[in-house]
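Appendix C reproduces, verbatim, an entry submitted by the partner laboratory led by Prof. M.T., so that reviewers can inspect both the input and the predicted structure.
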Amino acid sequence: ATGGTDVAMNDLNYPVSVAFIPSAAGDAALVTEHYYNVPSNQVLRVQVEHYDVRLLAPVAGARVDRTFLDHAVGAHARFNCDDVAVDPTGTFALVADGFNNRVRKIDLAEGGSFAVTTLAGPESAATFIMPTGVAIGVNAATGKSFAVVCAGYGNSGHNVHLISDLETGATETIAGNSIPGTNSPADTQVAGADARFNGLHSV
């Protein structure tokens, strides 16, 4: 790979998620680091080519303890990083910001500044409890992107949410009812609030 620096095992601090950038030249991807033995909550851009991983640049956040700072740019933003997903256009990414109970949006547009905002969470009508997983899909009928988020911690949450509009952050709960548990094996078909989850981590 050209550009960047080689990534050794100890160059990454507890990476928890990776998402490829579909429109990027080469096999570029975003990697989230999560607080573990070293304070770190940041999103990094790497390039993977023939098993060679090179760090291209930090995108957002920093190697600091988990805090929150919104409407910030790049390294000035603050997260509690968990999962990351990239829109099929490659122009933005979503981060499940666990302890901040938010889903954050990062601008990846060419020549952009990596501006970070809250898409859904306490500043909007949506309410998450410890979102840990996020995935982006495209509605085949409308061509619009949407996101599915799983959330839950301890005795609260344990729901699956749909963000139907990635501009406004319009969100609804589509499965679970905030009570941790499991469905009976006899419940071969459950839907919506009748579904039970316990310890959701990825979607």
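The longest strand covers residues 52-62. Additional entries are available on request from the coordinating office.
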